[in-house]
Protein: Transposase IS204/IS1001/IS1096/IS1165 DDE domain-containing protein
Amino acid sequence: MSKRVPSVIIKKKSIIPINKEAIKAICIDDFALKKRQNYGTLMIDLKNGRVIDLIESRERKDVAIWLSLFPNIQFVSRDGSPAYAAAIRQAHPDAHHISDRFHLIKRLIDALTLCMQNTVAGRIIIPLTKGQHAMNELLVHTPSRRTKILLVKSLASEGRTLQDIRSQTKFSLQTIRKYMNMREEDIPEDAADQRGREHQEAIRKVMEKAEEVRSMHKKGYSTRKIVDKTGYTHKTITNYLASDFNPINGQYGVRRPGKLSPFRNEVLTLRTKGTTYKEIHAFIRQKGYTGSEAAIRQFIAKEKRLGRDFKKEASTDATEVIERKWLIKLLYKPLNKVKDISFEQVENSIQQYPLIGTLLDLIWDFKKILKSGKKEILHTWIAETESLELAELKSFLNGMKKDIKAVENACTLPYSNGLAEGSVNKLKTIKRIMYDRNSFALLRNKLLLLEVRKFN
Structure:
């Protein structure tokens, strides 16, 4: 007795002929017809990436009957859905299940992220690293171009990547490449900063005036006559003629008392550590500061212009802050792709929280296992992970053990659900073009027609 085909599978005869007996390796995935309400299932031929068919359901019973219409299926790639797993076993008991590697990695990263959030502080205080020392030099001083070039060359000589140097110096990649490729003979010499040059020029002009007055005085000119000749005031001429005359203004470099005076050392200490102006303002307001954030910026700018080494004046602790979110990024990307943190900073963070190193090893070892083609080392990884007794990983490990054959096949077979994810995006585009007003039968035929044009 032949199986009854549910109405969700075929509403009317398809205009696209499908050779169902030729299909042997497929991947299936669900897609939303109406988000959180109605879903369908898409089937892709893993041999050529072509969309074979789609139905208006993702229920186990409907999917099982639909799959049974393709009698020679041997390999099925899928996500971790229990409904799909049961449907495949019902329709094709001897077919090989393949768990999708992307979904496995995503589930593991979600579990590791939760574990890190539950055990690692949001901000980790570590000893100041060498790279951050260089960054602090840029924060608290106005370096010359020569200093910037030598800093970039020094970081490059240590084997730092472009992104790492960028995160340390905040220079653009174009500037970093330019500085790295600059020859020694082309590196400019140090020059006084603009404020210093202006100060020296002002002193020179004052001394010229003083020499002019002194020269006239030596020739016998009276003070009154010098006033008439030069236009300077009587007091100015008296100052120029004084034996202890100093061309530097008496107010130059003098600190004037103000609202920031009681918090001076704390402001310098915080800024030396790289604390933002907003954070400094919030911190000292709690201690009674009533001024503005702009005043703090002006204060730091003046210290830079005067060239003071206020790192020595500030009572600094040689520490820096590492954000937990930077470490979580390492679950997704290798260290050389994360610009916020350096190798030395990661090492220092692991010394405080050894679990961070363990979690990073877990995810990267798992990724290698999925590419290794050796299912034996998968069981070793599972045993070692279970021995850690991390509550956040318990659900993930239980799910893997229940579906262990599919996970083993993910390590040894080249198939995945990547083709299905791309086809679902294509389906969404078609729905948008049709303003989501099409019937399912029209949507199905439109997608399959596009596939015919693509592969013929």
